[in-house]
Design a protein that fits this description.
With about 180 residues, this protein is mainly beta. It is built from one helix and eight strands; from the N terminus they run αββββββββ. The longest helix has 15 residues.
C-alpha cells in the first residue's frame, strides 16, 4: 500500500486536533452520552443507521450500526437484490470545543462492512480517520456532519465507486441528529 501525501496530512491533523486546547471554549457538557440517527451522503445506495457516543472531557467512544441498501437503479446494473449489508463501526475520538454550542471531533477506529447481500461471508474492513463538527442548539439536541477517509482498507472496499466503476472522492460524508443525555 502506497503512503500518499494526504495520509500524512490527515495524520498531522489528527495529532494537532488532540493537542489543541482552546482556552475559553467549553463543551455544553463535559461528560455526555448521546444516541442518534445518521444518514450517509452517498450515490447509488442508501446507508442509514444508529449512532452512539459517550464522551468524557477530551476523549470519547463512538459506535455506529447501519443498514446498506441499493437504490432503484440496482437491477439495471446486475444487482439482484436491494439489500447489500450492514456497517458496524467502533471509534475513539478527541473533542475540541470551539464555543459553548460547537465542537469538533477527530478520531479513528475500525469499520466493518458486512456485505451479506452481495455474497455470504463477504466482509470488508477499513481504518478511518474522521472529522466531525457538532452543533448543540440545546443541552439535549445535537446536529452533526462527519467526514471519514480510510487510511487502510480491505481490497474491494470501493467507498468512492459508483455502479459504472467510476471513482469519486474517497471521503465518505454522513449527517445526523442525536439526543444527548
Amino acid at each position: 500500500m502506497i503512503l500518499r501525501s494526504y495520509h500524512v496530512a490527515l495524520t498531522t491533523l489528527i495529532i494537532a486536533g488532540f493537542s489543541a486546547q482552546p482556552a475559553l471554549a467549553q463543551p455544553v457538557n463535559t461528560s455526555q452520552g448521546d444516541i442518534g440517527l445518521q444518514v450517509y451522503l452517498v450515490e447509488d445506495k442508501t446507508i442509514a443507521g444508529a449512532d452512539f457516543n459517550f464522551a468524557f472531557q477530551n476523549l470519547g467512544f463512538h459506535l455506529e450500526m447501519g443498514i446498506i441498501s441499493a437504490d432503484d437503479d440496482a437491477p439495471r446494473h446486475n444487482i439482484d437484490d436491494n439489500w447489500i449489508g450492514s456497517l458496524l463501526g467502533i471509534h475513539i475520538f478527541g473533542r475540541v470545543p470551539l464555543s459553548p454550542t460547537l465542537e469538533t471531533r477527530i478520531g479513528t477506529g475500525l469499520d466493518s462492512w458486512l456485505l451479506h447481500g452481495i455474497a455470504a461471508g463477504e466482509n470488508k474492513y477499513g481504518m478511518p480517520a474522521y472529522g466531525e463538527i457538532r452543533f448543540m442548539p440545546s443541552h439535549q439536541a445535537v446536529v452533526f456532519l462527519r467526514g471519514r477517509y480510510y487510511l487502510f482498507h480491505s481490497d474491494g472496499l470501493g467507498v468512492g465507486e459508483d455502479y459504472q466503476g467510476r471513482r469519486h472522492e474517497d471521503i465518505l460524508f454522513s449527517a445526523g441528529v442525536s439526543y444527548a443525555f
